[in-house]
Amino acid sequence: MNPVFADLPTTIFEAMSGLARHHGAINLGQGFPDDPGPIDVRERAAAALRDGYNQYPPMMGLPVLRRAIADHYGLHQGLDLDPETEVMVTSGATEAIAAALFALIEPGDEVVLFEPAYDAYLPLVRQAGGIPRFVTLKPPGFGFDEAALAEAFSDKTKVVVLNNPLNPSATAFSRDDLALLASFCDRFDVIAVCDEVWEHVIFDGRRHVPLLGMPAMRERTVKIGSAGKIFSLTGWKVGFVMAAPPIMRVLAKAHQFLTFTTPPNLQEGAAFGLAKETAYFEGMRNGFSRSRDRLASGLTERGFRVLPAHATWFLNIDIAGLDVSDDVAFCRMLVTERGVAAIPVSAFYPRDPVRHVVRLCFAKADATLDAALDRLEGLASCRT
Ligand code: GLN
After folding, report:
1. Per-residue confidence (pLDDT) for residue 88, from 0 to 100
2. Stretch 160-178: mean pLDDT, rounded?
3. Per-residue pLDDT tens for 225-243?
4. Where in the chain is the domain with CATH 3.90.1150.10?
5. How far apart are the first and last CA of the chain?
């Protein structure tokens, strides 16, 4: 069988959620909120399921959703997108990433990946025949510089994959970082596949900067978003992809044979949600940043070193100095002995792993976070 898939472990998210179920643990591993998501968005999807058209929607997505996506990014990010030619709906951001990589990469092309890398990227690049070139980002800043990009980019580079804000580091790249990356894309004629699913989940007054909006990147960026992340409805698997028409035409050819289309009622719900007033998005951010602060201060009080968390549903702890060999051992101990599931960040490093950072999801009710904190009591007091 194909070693790209046959040699892969089950994803760390599924593995940790399985262990959490087995041990009855509080699951702060796989990222999903325990909030049921906005009721009006869900009601809209329910009404569309009950009363609406439930046959194949158009392959590119419902016109109402494509229009809502273009309007939404116009309002929130100042982007000027044509819903007819530059917007496509996919079954989750993962499908959009797969479609983009399959459409853009030819066997032998080099693809620049930043590690930590979301675990889907590398197998999809390999399946497309791409040769990965890694830029390794290290805690606590997870930044890159010109020398790191110069080592990774070459005349053979076809694509760079950027996740911004970045999971699992919970950091967002600055405008200067993006300008530097854009200059390399321009110089080496590279297309950026930009996984921006966390664009709205960004805290402390920071604003997301879309790479597609930067000079020189408008024609060479694939921007990917996710209704699941924007509306805390991770099971919906409604993604969107935006790109200039020459790129989009080819992405659509890949999408038509991956999933072809996405449930129409969920598309209607997403279209309704994207048109929500700005206060909704502010409220969502405020709620998550309060949860972040609650978990961060609880961990700090218990002696853990918490890394800065500027975006996403995650924060990281630095376990160097604790009496444990690495992040995997720590997470195994945590779930079996303490009943708390977390994610070892080394799972995101295919080349040069960081083994002393552990990711925790704070998108949970206060009582859940407090119960998890109780279970972590005493663990960090034996720091060396
Ligand atoms: N994006 C989620 C996370 O980082 C996981 C998604 C999945 O389990 N496939 O936790």
Report:
1. 98
2. 97
3. 999 999 999 999 999 999 9
4. 3-30+279-381
5. 47
CA dihedral 19, 25, 30, 31 (to 10 degrees): 170
Determine the atom of ligand 1 nearest the C-alpha atom of 120: 9
pLDDT tens digits, residue range 259-282? 999 999 999 999 999 999 999 999
Q: Outline which parts of the chain fall under CATH 3.40.640.10.
A: 39-276
CA of 181 to the centre of ligand 1 (A): 26
Range 39-276 classified under CATH 3.40.640.10: yes
Give the tens place of pLDDT for each residue, 90-108. Answer: 999 999 999 999 999 999 9
Residue nearest to atom 9 of ligand 1 (CA): 13
CA distances from 188 to 134, 151, 158, 175 (A): 16, 13, 8, 20
Atom index in ligand 1 nearest the CA of residue 118 equals 4
pLDDT of residue 215: 86
Residue 382: what pLDDT? 54
Q: Are 267 and 76 in contact (CB under 8 A)?
A: no
Please state the CATH superfamily assignment of the domain spanning residues 3-30+279-381 in this structure.
Answer: Aspartate Aminotransferase, domain 1 (3.90.1150.10)
17 lines ligand 1 (CB under 6 A): no
- Cα–Cα distance, 283 to 184 (Å, whole number): 37
The finding on whether 31 has its CB within 6 A of some atom of ligand 1 is: yes
